[in-house]
Write a structure and sequence with these properties.
41% of the residues lie in helices and 22% in strands. It is α/β, with parallel strands linked by helices and 332 residues long. α4 links the parallel β5 and β6. The protein is globular and about 50 Å long.
Length: 332
């Protein structure tokens, strides 16, 4: 019997979200829609620009958002990550526990340093641009893995952002090997265009000889395949995983299983903030898959949950919101 529906490894980041104009984004020199890694001096400079603006703070990290989504829907999740012994680290650890996510953080004493953080800059067109200070999460390594918990999970999920960290990548791949040995399904999100452009070999190592589930948005898929031709993209991605979920924003999503392709319509929403939409999609989809729903049904649930995230500010929903979405989904 599986202990966990989902075991994930990824970055532990505390998100601080600001609403900014396009002009301010340009002044700050931030690449729109993408994730940029920053160091301490760059972070201090960027913070100077947003001083006085209203900030919203939440637990974040791509796979962190995904495990929280799955747990809020009623699934059991475990998250392997790394924080420092500071206020943000305590906040992050408590946030996971408050959302019912098991974690290695309850078994280890954090080291001195700074917990990773992400400045999320949201422009009026609802696009999010991220500046990530990795801090302690840059040293995430295999000591964060709980092999016996991986072995007792249904799905092992890797965050593509770990391709930027040599030790994080090694840990993700080691976890994948444990999962494969124990017939645990494997999943990966490509995470961001910058990972594909600069860390492709790391992503290829995570894909290995193929996955059970691969998540990508349209821009990531186009960058990975070097084309905008959807048929070519679908053909290429279907070689990498048994089930591919291609998210397309207002155009909905596509589920690809070998030669079979199903288009799942989007749930109409007024976009406010796209931060966390892909993470929510993955969490809701994997919840569906591990709770008796087929891939098409799971993608329909995931579209609905992602639309709710996009329709508000912030990267996550409340447990009440996610449960209401699932209840509505089950009765319609």
């Amino acid at each position: 019997m599986s202990h966990y529906h989902l075991y994930a490894i990824g970055n532990a980041l505390v998100d601080t979200e600001y609403e900014v104009s396009d002009a301010l984004l340009q002044t700050m020199g931030v690449s729109k829609r993408h994730m940029t890694l920053i160091d301490t001096p760059q972070r201090a400079e960027l913070l100077r620009h947003v001083q006085g603006l209203h900030a919203r703070r939440t637990g974040g990290g791509s796979a962190g958002n995904t495990v929280v989504a799955l747990a809020q829907l009623g699934g059991k999740a475990f998250y392997s990550c790394r924080v420092a012994d500071d206020e943000l680290g305590a906040f992050y650890s408590q946030d996971l526990q408050a959302n019912g996510v098991a974690t290695n953080l309850t078994h280890t004493r954090p080291q001195p340093g700074q917990t990773g953080s992400c400045m999320v800059l949201v422009t009026p067109d609802a696009e999010r641009s991220m500046c990530t200070f990795l801090g302690a999460t840059s040293e995430l390594d295999a000591s964060a893995l709980h092999p016996h918990d991986i072995a007792k999970s249904r799905i092992y999920y890797m965050e593509g952002y770990l391709a930027a960290s040599p030790t994080g990548l090694q840990a993700a791949v080691q976890g994948r090997q444990i999962a494969t040995q124990h017939q645990v399904q494997t999943a990966l999100t490509l995470s961001d265009v910058s990972m594909i452009n600069f860390c492709r070999t790391g992503l290829e190592a995570m894909i290995g000889d193929g996955l059970d589930y691969l998540f990508a948005n349209e821009e990531e898929a186009q960058t990975w395949c070097g084309t905008t031709d959807l048929e070519v993209i679908i053909g290429q991605l279907s070689q990498l995983a048994r089930t591919v979920c291609l998210t397309r924003g207002p155009k909905g999503s596509i589920v690809v299983q070998g030669a079979q392709r199903t288009d799942i319509p989007a749930v109409p929403t007024q976009a406010v903030d796209t931060n966390g939409a892909g993470d929510m999609f993955a969490g809701a989809f994997l919840f569906g898959i591990t709770h008796g729903h087929n891939p098409e049904e799971s993608a329909a649930l995931a579209n609905r949950a992602a639309a709710a995230v996009v329709g508000q500010h912030g990267n996550r929903l409340s447990t009440a919101q996610t449960q209401a979405i699932y209840a509505h989904f089950q009765t319609h």
